[in-house]
Amino acid sequence: MRTLKVALLGCGVVGTEVARIMTTDAADLAARIGAPVELAGVAVRRANRPRPGIPDHLITTDAAELVKRGDIDVVIEVIGGIEPARSLILSAFDNGASVVSANKALLAADGAALHGAAAKAGVDLYYEAAVAGAIPLIRPLRESLAGDKVNRVLGIVNGTTNFILDKMDSTGAGYSEALEEATALGYAEADPTADVEGFDAAAKAAILAGIAFHSRVTAENVFREGITEVTAADIASAKAMNSVVKLLAICERSTAADGAESVTARVHPAMIPLTHPLANVRGAYNAVFVEADAAGQLMFYGPGAGGAPTASAVLGDLVAVCRNKLGGATGPGESAYAQLTVNPMDDVVTRYHVSLDVADKAGVLAQVATVFAEHGVSIDTVRQQGREGDASLVVVTHRATDAALSATVSELRTLDNVRGVASIMRVEGE
């Protein structure tokens, strides 16, 4: 049986773990695949950095030449970003290599073109590690649930933001203080923008929605709102409702009155009740709920990032792709037959928690309630607390569209007795 050759693009935290496991577990991998696998080259930016366990002769700074060699069976891409990753992956396809990637940003932006190029070349594109680290999620959606109808995917898919919000909830820390601790512990990058502004979670939501609903969904289709505006007051309000605040990725199928189906994909902070399993996902862990017609509710939970967990997902894909190579077959590719429309956020229906600073006067509550009613937003509960001539008024709505809530809040801001809108947060999980 011939040896399968693997090229590794990137040797950072994840790439180093991939190379280590390929070396230390070589015999087990060969037994599971049915043939030996050999690390044939490792492309890096700087060749002079020490890389224990990786022979110097495997290191190259010419990634383009490595993927063009012609004897490479599988390319593992863990460099991230759009370019040069996209060009390298396309070159790998052109030269007959299958690709295993952890690149959520690229897949969310250009997944359709990559799938098309892989199909044309008759090779595989696998990317379990692109979403939720070690948690098996892509393959269950793409294969295990292929015969079912998935209606909703709801979850925590970014460990950095979950750590920050959990710290704010458990210690009373403000956002900046919690971010500082996350950075010190290595959970947040020096530039945390991709995480805290929701870009990372939005890319993952796009990938999940595309697979779950058999439609093409890109990161641009995903409504995105990060956690930078979440305050200690928001966390306290959630506690008063026996809830916690989480950054959620939510992908849903909806059916109009005429039977037409569409989907929505969004990422934003939301209050969820303490009784919901996602409320107990602590620290940097991830968890995702999948709701399907026949299977019902499924929950996937585990470490969503880190070198070893992500490498586990990469190597799982490597084994699958290598087995396909030996069998002369390819695994499942893109499934976009449904071509469902992606609805804008204005059409999304959800519940809301609105906190207002108002004058402590008779009739203010009635005035506020009238504005909600005029815009078709019904009120579930109201809580008012006076303080030195002013009052805090907390309104929790029944389900309403984002557009209706936005119009309501805009009018509330014009009322003389409304001093300001302290916070607006969606309520999920009920």
From TrEMBL:
Keywords, alphabetical: Amino-acid biosynthesis, Methionine biosynthesis, NADP, Oxidoreductase, Sodium, Threonine biosynthesis
Catalytic activity line of the entry: L-homoserine + NAD(+) = L-aspartate 4-semialdehyde + NADH + H(+); L-homoserine + NADP(+) = L-aspartate 4-semialdehyde + NADPH + H(+)
Database matches in PROSITE patterns: ACT, HOMOSER_DHGENASE
InterPro entries: ACT-like_dom_sf (IPR045865), ACT_dom (IPR002912), Asp/hSer_DH_NAD-bd (IPR005106), HDH (IPR016204), HDH_cat (IPR001342), HDH_CS (IPR019811), NAD(P)-bd_dom_sf (IPR036291)
EC code: 1.1.1.3
Pathway membership: Amino-acid biosynthesis; L-methionine biosynthesis via de novo pathway; L-homoserine from L-aspartate: step 3/3; Amino-acid biosynthesis; L-threonine biosynthesis; L-threonine from L-aspartate: step 3/5
One Pfam family in the UniProt entry: NAD_binding_3
Keyword NADP: yes
GO MF entry, a single one: homoserine dehydrogenase activity
The keyword Nucleotide-binding is annotated on this UniProt entry: no
Record's signal peptide: none
Domain ACT: 353-426
Cofactor or coenzyme needed: a metal cation
NCBIfam families noted in UniProt: PRK06349.1
Function: Catalyzes the conversion of L-aspartate-beta-semialdehyde (L-Asa) to L-homoserine (L-Hse), the third step in the biosynthesis of threonine and methionine from aspartate.
Family statement: Belongs to the homoserine dehydrogenase family.
This protein's name: Homoserine dehydrogenase
